[in-house]
Every structure is written in structure tokens, then in C-alpha cells.
Amino acid sequence: MKKVIYILAVIISFGAKAFANELIEKAEKAYDSKNYKEAISYYEKLVSGGYKSHQLYFNLGNAYYRNNDLGKAIYYYELARKVEPNDEDVRINLGIASAKTSDKIDSKENFFISAVKTNLLSAFSTGTWAWLTVFCLGIGCVLFFVFVNSTVLLVKRLSFLLSLALLLSFFVTYFLGYSALQARYENKFAIVLSKEIRIMNEPTPLAKIKFNLHEGTKIRVVENNGDWLLIKLDNGNEGWVKVNDVGII
User: Fold this and answer.
1) Fold that domain 188-248 belongs to in CATH
2) Sign of torsion, CA 180 186 191 197?
3) CA atoms within 13 A on the CB side of 209
4) What dotted CATH number matches 2-98?
5) DSSP 32-92
6) Which DSSP letter does residue 110 get?
7) Closest to 214 measured CA to CA, from 107, 102, 73, 105
8) Among 41, 50, 180, 230, which is most buried by a count of CB atoms within 10 Å?
9) How far apart are CA 85 and CA 125, in angstroms?
10) How far apart are CA 190 and CA 99, in angstroms?
11) Strands (E), 76-227
């Protein structure tokens, strides 16, 4: 019985893989033929089927961008960057698409500080930050051991200074890695998908309109209340938006 189940699982796995490869080939062919809507439909079937990869999100973002769907293009570029933070093509295309958004929101935080913090946290994946932390601690311990046991004055001085530097690096990389982990799992963001949406002062269609936002704008999600999201902008403005009007990253 176990063998039968295993064989069935293998057959289903190969069938699913073949189906996915077929959709990818059709999507790529449609994209090359500049039939972007058709390419989008094939890529969306893969996403609906549970397939996740930075390349799939990147290709779908490109198709939406070529189809002049700026909001959805930025949304999938952001998903691609979330999976693969260091991909240069994703970074470039996301920057090009984001530059075309119409909402220019000033941040309360100093621009230089904000830019440096963002670039630092996204420089490496959380896994890489963890390995850097372990590396600094491990090599620092080795050098401290050399300092304690060496009888050569120059070696003792160098090993002591280097162990202190690596100890400091350990704390810095640990802090940055922890901050990157928090930013990834605690801070939720969303992208406006509709051409224009209304931000309400309460989670109800009859509430007063506070302001409008347009496709492609990146917003921070503060609270989820059923069909509504409480969002916050970099300038401090808050309001409620329908879940269907945005794509949560």
C-alpha cells in the first residue's frame, strides 16, 4: 500500500512539474510575442497554483509593467525582492517602476538616515546576517584564545585588538540581522493596485474620505479588520482602505 501511495505521489509530482513547465513556456512565448495579457494569465495560473519564486514574480512584474499595470508590476517586483533581496535586475526594474508613481510622499524620518538604514538592512538576507554574526563571534574567540596563550608580544597585541574589533562586529551584525528579521516579519507593507483608491477615516463605505492614493504607492499595514486595513504613510497620515484595493507584500 505504501508503495502504491509513493508511486501515485511521484506521478502527481511529475505531472504538476510538467504542467508548470508548459505554462512557463506558453507565458514566455506570449511575452516574446508582446501578448502581455496572455503571458499574465499563464503566470497568474502558476501563482494561483502555489508556485513561488523570485523569477516567477519578476517575470510577472515585467508582464504587468509592459501591460501598463503599474500597481501590479510594483507589487510583484516587491514580492520578487522579498524572496531574493540582492537580485540586481529586480532592484533596477522596481526603481524604474516606482519612479513612475504619482504619489510623492515625504517621510518624517531624515532621508539620509532612512536611506542608509534601508540599504543596510536589505544588503543581505537574514540568513547571511546570521552567518556573519556566527563568523565574527567564532573568529573573535579564536583570536582571544591566541591572545591568552601566545608568548610573542606583537602577536598578543594584534590578536587582542582584532578580537575586540570582531567582538564589536558581532554586536553590530547581530543588531542589523535582528532588525532585518523584524522588518521582514513584523512590518507588513502593501502596494496600491487600483488606479485610485479612497482612504477613509473609519472602516466603512459611508465614512468620510481623508485622502486619495494612486496605483503603485507603497503603504504600511498597521491593522487588519476583516475587509479593511488600517494603513499608515511615511508622512504619518493614517486611514482605512479596502483589502481588495491593495496587494500585501
Assistant:
1) SH3 type barrels. (2.30.30)
2) negative
3) 6
4) 1.25.40.10
5) HTT-HHHHHHHHHHHHHTT---HHHHHHHHHHHHHTT-HHHHHHHHHHHHHH-TT-HHHHH
6) -
7) 102
8) 180
9) 7
10) 17
11) 188-192, 196-200, 209-214, 218-225
Greater confidence (20 vs 6) lies with: 20
Three cell numbers written together for 30: 506570449
Torsion, Cα of 197, 203, 209, 213 (10° steps): -30
pLDDT at site 249 = 85
Residue whose C-alpha cell is 524604474: 96
Cell numbers describing residue 88: 540586481
How much is the pTM?
A: 0.67
Tracing cell 484595493 back to the chain, one arrives at 245
Average pLDDT taken over every residue of the chain: 84
- Nearest CA to 206 out of 245, 243, 240 is that of 240
Give the relative orientation of helices 88-98 and 54-66 as an angle to the nearest 10 degrees: 30
List all residues 6 or more positions away from 220 whose beta carbon is below 8 Å from its beta carbon: 187, 188, 189, 190, 231, 232, 233, 234
